[in-house]
Design brief:
10 helices; Arc Repressor Mutant, subunit A; 68% helix; 2 domains; mainly alpha
């Protein structure tokens, strides 16, 4: 089996198949990051595609200071921020403001023994998480998604977002506190919900 280092050499030489092989195991996580940053599956697909195109055209800039996965995450993160900035400059009124987004394209496996009621509860919790994440400022959202949802360590989060380790920890602390508030408000209680604890504990998607 060809190694990542060999694939990188080929990709730097313009081999699209080598590049495809490099990103194949990372695409689901790349889409997950884009989706939880922009909040819409169609836009997340566009962000992911744009990020992959950027990565392919800039593969010669990859020097190996961080892992290829971290480098790709950084491009997805920055592309998602670009999309959010564009959205802020070009607001669009939804056709049906009262309609909720249906479904979640990044699904967590459901235990075989789970009944319809359990599945419904988990779906409600996931929707609550998505709404709470969407309410966070983008830089806080990125920190939570990368650390708590995708499991990157603090140094990797710093590398992806381009900020210091101290800033990452500060953003996470403030983001988790705000998530607790938002999720508690959604449940109509004054105590952290089960969902907020799942986020802090590293709920994966």
């Amino acid at each position: 089996m060809i190694s990542e280092a060999e694939l990188l050499v080929l990709a730097r030489g313009g081999d699209p198949d080598a590049f495809a092989a490099l990103v194949a195991p990372l695409q689901r996580r790349a889409f997950g990051l884009a989706y939880r940053m922009v909040g819409e599956p169609e836009e997340a697909a566009d962000v992911t595609q744009d990020a992959l195109v950027r990565a392919f055209t800039r593969i010669g800039d990859f020097r190996g200071d961080a892992s290829f996965a971290t480098w790709l995450h950084r491009i997805v993160h920055n592309t998602a921020l670009d999309a959010l900035r564009w959205r802020a400059r070009h607001p669009v009124e939804p056709l049906d403001p009262g309609a909720e987004r249906q479904g979640d394209p990044v699904r967590e496996p459901v235990a075989v023994a789970a009944g319809p009621e359990d599945i419904a509860v988990r779906a409600d919790e996931r929707r609550a998480i998505e709404r709470a994440l969407a309410a966070l400022p983008p830089e806080f959202r990125a920190a939570v998604v990368l650390r708590d949802l995708q499991g990157l360590d603090y140094e990797e989060v710093a590398a992806v977002t381009g900020v210091s380790l101290g800033t990452v920890k500060s953003r996470l602390h403030r983001a988790r506190a705000r998530l607790r508030e938002l999720l508690s408000e959604a449940e109509g209680t004054g105590t952290p919900s089960r969902t907020s604890r799942e986020v802090e504990g590293g709920w994966r998607g």
